[in-house]
Amino acid sequence: TKMTTNLEERIFDSQWYKNNIQTPIRSNAIELKLAKNELGQFIKLKELRVPEPTLKKEEVNSIWEYYSVLFPERICKFEEIKYWQIIMWNDFPYLDCKRIVAAAKSFENLSDLSSKINKQPNETVLWLNNLYKLIYTLSGNDLQFRENELIPNLDGNFRKLQELNIDGVGQPILLQILQLFGTNWKDKILYPNSCVDTELRFKTFNFSNVKVDIEKALNNLKDKSTTINEATIMLVQWLEKNENLAVEHFKELYKNRADLFVGAIPDKDSLYAIFRDGVDLSKVKKIIEFVSLHPDIDFDNVQDNMNQYKLLPDTTNNIYKEALELLVAELRKKNVSTIHELLDVLERIKDGELIKRADNGNSEIQILPEERAKLFQSLLAEAIQTTIPHLKSHGYIFSDELDQNSPSVFRVIRNNETIKIIIRPAHGGKYKLFYDGEFDALEAKSTELWLSDGRNVFQETLGLLVKRMLAEGTRFIPTSGFLPGNSI
């Protein structure tokens, strides 16, 4: 349908040719499936995308590369780029900077784009960074990024350049606190590693932004909702754990953290009752520390269970009843669940195996041996049920062959090697080796010792064990040649 200038001058009236020959033919041609896409399928000419012929060769190649990943069903085959650039007319919808931008912003979020190009989000970010460089090179400035939502925030949603900030704080917990206070900075912070090594420049989110928003939230509170109380308690905990940062950036908040904490407690009557009745707070602290490790615990029918396990005398005694109610109240706050974990909590109160009666300072109640055996077996079973799925998910293959000397020793295949593993419960910050088979298994260098507190699974190593011994002041470790009775 093209006509040379020389032919136009000698034979045809160019406008007549355009109106009566060229335009009708082209209008019909673009509706025909005459072109092959990158997938080898024939598509209509009007659906075909070809890089703009006026671009540099490396820019043409880059545009084709990115567009072929996003929409292979629309792009021409790489080896046919030059062919289509030569025969297509000037007003053909060539791929240029604007059309690349339109293609990039057609995806809802980072997850949507990652699925399309079959990459993990972190890989997609690096892929995008190279695309940003191309767009900046083609446009010569950052205008496309200011006018279009192309850059992912922390939630993976695309935003305009001026709406985003670099994270200069590096404290995810503060972002959670701000969100509970009503300010969603995650929407305004750049996704990790996004726009690295590009010409794009951003504002920085820093501690002064955190301070302003927190103080504004605290000063404008009309009512203390559950969310606000949760945010305040989280803030106080962060101030306690990060003293240096707190003093440097939040001096007044740090100084007043106790007032903030008390103000966030909804049930102040119970708190005052504890102080009024002279409750030993060190015991309450031990209970709470243990229960905080077990958020899955539930305390229905606590008193019946405690009586069943012969841990309590007749609870008609008012003094003992009050002590029980206090214990139940503290544990219920943490949603405690099973009786064996309740027993473990009670043991930790005294750091031993005796529980003193509240109504008689001289008498003590022992946990009966058969009940202690039940507790021991339930804790071991729980540790095994928690640990085995964890290890299987990390490539351990369990054998059906059980160790005859210990129910806690298992044969497994790890990295094509058969080894033994020992699983032990670890509650209250300690664990105990019990069976002879466990000690026998530990003589092998390949044996692994795994511990579980019912929720978390972790491996014990010689290095960690020695470090804890050193921390306790033990610097000498006996060897196999050590004779009992000798001094170290």
- Low-pLDDT stretches are 301-326, 348-368
Helix content: 40-55%
Percentage of residues in strands: 5-15%
Query: Taking Cα atoms only, what radius of gyration do you get, to the nearest Å?
Result: 35 Å
What is the tally of beta strands? 14
Question: Looking at the structure, what is the overall shape?
Answer: elongated
**Mean pLDDT, nearest integer?**
78
Give the N-terminus to C-terminus distance in angstroms.
101 Å
What is the count of DSSP helices, taking H or I runs of 4+ residues? 22
> How would you characterize the largest beta sheet?
6 strands, mixed
Structural class designation: alpha+beta
Topology (SSEs and partners):
Blueprint lengths: L4 H6 L3 H16 L3 E4 L5 E3 L12 H14 L10 H7 L9 H8 L5 H8 L3 H19 L3 H5 L3 E2 L5 E2 L5 E3 L4 H10 L21 E3 L1 H13 L6 H16 L1 H7 L1 H5 L1 H7 L4 H9 L4 H12 L9 H7 L9 H15 L6 H12 L3 E3 L7 E3 L2 H24 L4 E6 L6 E6 L2 E11 L2 E2 L4 H7 L5 E5 L4 E4 L1 H10 L17
Parallel strand pairs: 5-6, 11-13
Antiparallel strand pairs: 1-2, 3-4, 7-8, 9-10, 10-11, 11-12, 13-14
Helix pairs in contact: 6-7, 9-10, 9-11, 11-12, 11-14, 16-19
Task: Give me some keywords for this one.
488 residues, 49% helix, six-stranded mixed β-sheet, 22 helices, single chain, two-stranded antiparallel sheet, alpha+beta
Summarize the structure.
By secondary structure, the chain is of the alpha+beta class. It has helices at 5-10, 14-29, 57-70, 81-87, 97-104, 110-117, 121-139, 143-147, 172-181, 207-219, 226-241, 243-249, 251-255, 257-263, 268-276, 281-292, 302-308, 318-332, 339-350, 369-392, 436-442, 462-471; strands at residues 33-36, 42-44, 151-152, 158-159, 165-167, 203-205, 354-356, 364-366, 397-402, 409-414, 417-427, 430-431, 448-452, 457-460. 49% of the residues lie in helices and 12% in strands.
